[in-house]
Amino acid sequence: MNGPALQDRPSASASWRIALPHSAAAVPVARALVRTALTELEHGADCDTAELLTAELVANAVEHTAGDTPIELVVELLPTGCQVEVHDPDPAPPGHLTQPDVKDPDPWQEHGRGLLLIRALSSSCGHRPTETGKAVWFRLAVVPHQWNPL
After folding, report:
1. Is 78 within 8 Å of 33 (Cβ atoms)?
2. Which residues form a coiled coil (predicted)?
3. Alpha-carbon span 70 to 85, nearest angstrom
4. H or E stretch at 71
5. Is the distance from CB of 119 to CB of 100 less than 8 angstroms?
6. Structural domains of the chain, ranges and CATH numbers in brackets
7. Which residues, 6+ apart, have CB-to-CB distance to 122 below 8 Å?
């Protein structure tokens, strides 16, 4: 076998729910929280991808919702992968998250690729209504350890 089997991972799950400010300052905080959670628990989901996609979800929530109501970051670590949700007060679904835009993003624009990244890099993604707005989420599967003989 090329390293620990998937079933050798801890079977317990862990989850966090954290209120973040409705400002751009929430993005680096959310990135750091996800990286710390995945690293300290030695979780098998890819930290870099989780951090990038979390930043996209939080940035979208801050940019596309009005007001100063805090947004919430929910991180759930499971033996099979992780799920990250961002809750915001706007009930409108995010555009083109589950149904791709028919045209490619303009390569000269700074915006317009976040949802494309989430669709392309996650194992699944979506959104759902909540009592106070919506939750937008993505999942990443556990990546098996690579065998390193050194």
Report:
1. no
2. none
3. 14
4. strand 71-78
5. yes
6. 14-101+111-141 (3.30.565.10)
7. 49, 53, 138, 139, 140
What's the token pair of residue 119?
A: 């669709």
Sheet containing 124-130: order of strands: 14-20, 71-78, 81-88, 133-141, 124-130
> pLDDT tens digit string along 84-93?
999 999 998 8
Q: How many CB atoms lie within 10 A of CB 134?
A: 21
Number of neighbours of residue 56 by Cβ within 10 angstroms: 21
The pTM of this model reads 0.80
Separation of alpha carbons 119 and 26, rounded Å = 22
Q: How many residues belong to the chain?
A: 150
Q: Answer for the pair 30, 58: CB distance below 8 angstroms, yes or no.
A: yes
CB 45 within 8 A of CB 140: yes
Q: How far apart are CA 130 and CA 148, in angstroms?
A: 45
Q: Which residue has the tokens 């009930």?
A: 91
Widest Cα–Cα separation across the chain: 54
**Distance between CA 50 and CA 56 in Å, rounded?**
10
Closest of 39, 59, 50, 74 to residue 114, by C-alpha:
59
Token match 């098996």: residue? 144
